[in-house]
UniProtKB/TrEMBL annotation:
Location (main, coarse): mitochondrion
Domain of life: Eukaryota
Name of the protein this chain belongs to: Rcf2p
Record flagged with keyword Transmembrane helix: yes
Organism expressing this protein natively: Sugiyamaella lignohabitans
A Pfam family: HIG_1_N
GO biological process, one term: mitochondrial respiratory chain complex IV assembly
One cellular-component annotation, GO: mitochondrion
Entry keyword set: Membrane, Transmembrane, Transmembrane helix
Subcellular location: Mitochondrion
Length: 244
């Protein structure tokens, strides 16, 4: 297992910080546009209390900032360590490097085929896609749940509009918490799969190295038993002796 150096940690921290700041700036713009739209087209929005206004101001910067930070982290891993998205990569790209060395294409294809070939790999591809895009899924599901829950509670004629908004927000928050828990489990599972892939690749490399060494030893023993020269210099010397 290779531990990152201090320089790598500093560069990684700087990369994700820049990504988060970019997302926060974009989210602030979204909040400003939403605030202006509500002020001009839906002034009743400001009669619901301080919570909706606060949520409108802080939710987009936080959500978009976290998402762009995740994208920056993925891009850093891809550029620095060669990690790629398994859902869109070919088998020979899944493990491009181990311990800084390029893997033989046949060995990479063999390692990749163990987990990506056949219909049995489809559930793994779905889980991998969900793990790689968990923040986009959470944001989309949160927005959909908020709209859907508000539509559901709006059918109750005995509730006021503010009560409907509160209930819809509670349902959406409950679903968001559940999605966050699922994303944590996906992250843990994805981390274990990456560790297993690295261990498998390193084991195959060690096995290939041992096989190569065994072939060299067997060939050397065979030539020695047959009294054959082992080096080109020996062949030249033997030729000179024959001419003499």
């Amino acid at each position: 297992m290779k531990f990152p150096s201090k320089e790598e940690l500093n560069e990684y921290t700087h990369t994700i910080a820049v990504g988060a700041i970019k997302g926060a700036v974009i989210g602030t713009g979204v909040s400003a546009l939403g605030y202006l739209y509500a002020k001009r087209r839906a002034p009743v929005f400001f009669t619901y209390g301080a919570f909706p206004r606060t949520f409108l101001l802080i939710a987009p910067p936080i959500m978009i900032g976290v998402t762009t930070m995740e994208f920056a982290s993925r891009e850093f891993e891809r550029e620095r360590y060669g990690y790629v998205d398994a859902a869109s990569a070919s088998p020979d790209m899944l493990i491009p490097k181990i311990n800084g060395s390029n893997i033989d294409p046949k060995l990479a294809a063999k390692v990749g085929a163990n987990g990506t070939d056949g219909a049995a790999a489809e559930p793994n591809a779905v889980l991998q896609y969900a793990a790689e895009n968990k923040y986009k899924i959470i944001m989309g599901a949160w927005a959909a749940s908020l709209a859907g829950s508000y539509w559901a509670v709006s059918k109750d004629k005995y509730l006021t509009k503010s009560q409907r908004i509160v209930q819809a927000r509670m349902y959406a928050q409950g679903l968001t918490v559940a999605l966050l828990l699922v994303s944590v489990m996906l992250s843990v599972s994805n981390g274990k799969e990456k560790d297993n892939s690295r261990e498998t690749g390193e084991a195959d490399l060690r096995e290939g190295k041992q096989t190569w060494e065994e072939i060299v030893e067997q060939e050397t023993a065979r030539e020695t038993a047959a009294h054959l020269p082992l080096h080109l210099s020996d062949r030249k010397n033997n030729g000179n002796h024959h001419h003499d």
